[in-house]
Specification:
There is one protein chain. By secondary structure, the protein is α+β, with helices and mostly antiparallel strands. The chain has twelve helices and five strands. It has a five-stranded antiparallel sheet. It starts with a strand and ends with a helix.
């Protein structure tokens, strides 16, 4: 157990709110007083919420409560009831306060990952001396990414979630992924995502020109499929994409081994270095085709493709009907 540790629970516009917590196993422990401070409510309100949580059967009291020895301001030691993360979350979704609202918005996506897994890095945690535990888990996460069957871009996203400033909902993060995608596609095809979809989508070609699409059934192609740039990459380009991503993962594991933290901006700079070392051209512009133009072109080709498919189906039906009629006449 680790006593008197400190961790950032969440951020408000006014600044950081730091709560003393107790680590034991895979959870954290807070007192009612700590929860009152966290949610900006008095202790009586927290007590009522906890009582209702147990009364309604949402949680079982003896499974989520534990007594720890606590040193008070008078230097005396008392046995105090602490509540685990499940109770903190349950109370957080009941309290009505501005801080409670902010907690709910943040906790749904981040809290368990932030406190337990540590994959969303925070600098306070590293400074507190728990960095070795974080980097051990980070290395395990990277090995999991390497061995996974997920597509290349998803692996890249998985790498970026380890950044200390990663925020999935931030518009800058979304734009960041678009930049990275275009850099990779340009390196292997000399085309951005929009240019690939615009220039290679062709209703006259099998699967509308998509070469890395799952070619089980042309009828299974959707309008969404034809707007995904990766689907138009050929076998050689897909192989090169995989090699570049593998180099990225190798670098990420090196940073974890050396216990170096990475920000989103650091990752994109490192991508440029990896591309240069691989003899690839670095994309320094936005491309000649807009996303909107690419979508319009690919969807237009898709409509033509569907029309062609329906025409072929009608012709096939007529042939089958004529064959059936000929068979009847011969009988």
């Amino acid at each position: 157990m680790q006593n008197n540790s400190q961790i950032i629970i969440y951020h408000t516009k006014e600044g950081e709110t730091k709560i003393d917590v107790r680590f034991d196993g895979d959870t954290v422990w807070l007192t009612q007083k700590m929860m009152a401070e966290l949610f900006g409510k008095d202790r009586k309100t927290i007590t009522e919420h906890i009582g209702n949580i147990f009364k309604e059967g949402e949680l079982t009291e003896n499974l989520v409560c534990r007594r720890f020895q606590h040193t008070a301001l008078d230097k005396k030691k008392y046995n105090v009831i602490f509540y685990n993360l499940d109770v903190v979350l349950a109370v957080g979704y009941r309290v009505k306060s501005p801080q409670g609202m902010k907690f709910r918005q943040w906790a749904t996506e981040r809290l368990k990952e932030y406190l337990i897994n540590g994959f969303s890095l925070n600098e306070e945690k590293l400074k507190s001396g728990r960095s070795m535990e974080y980097f051990d888990k980070l290395q395990a996460k990277l090995r999991e990414i390497r061995l996974s069957e997920r597509i290349f871009y998803q692996k890249i996203k998985d790498i970026y979630t380890t950044s200390i400033d990663y925020d999935a909902k931030d518009n800058k993060t979304i734009e960041f992924f678009k930049v990275v995608q275009n850099k990779l596609l340009w390196a292997i095809s000399k085309k951005t995502a929009a240019e690939l979809a615009h220039r290679r989508s062709d209703h006259k070609l099998p699967y509308l020109g998509m070469q890395s699409f799952d070619k089980n059934d042309e009828k299974a192609i959707t309008k969404k499929d034809v707007s995904i740039a990766k689907n138009y990459l050929n076998e050689k380009e897909i192989k090169m994409l995989g090699l570049l991503v593998e180099q990225y993962l190798a670098f990420a594991e090196t940073m974890a081994e050396e216990q170096k933290t990475m920000k989103m901006s650091d990752w994109i700079k490192r991508l440029d270095v990896i591309l240069q070392m691989s003899g690839k051209e670095i994309l320094k512009h936005a491309g000649k085709i807009s996303h909107e133009l690419a979508i319009a072109k690919s969807e237009k080709e898709y409509e033509k493709f569907i029309h062609k498919q329906k025409k072929l189906e009608r012709e096939e039906s007529i042939k089958e009907l004529e064959a059936d009629m000929k068979a009847l006449r011969s009988d």
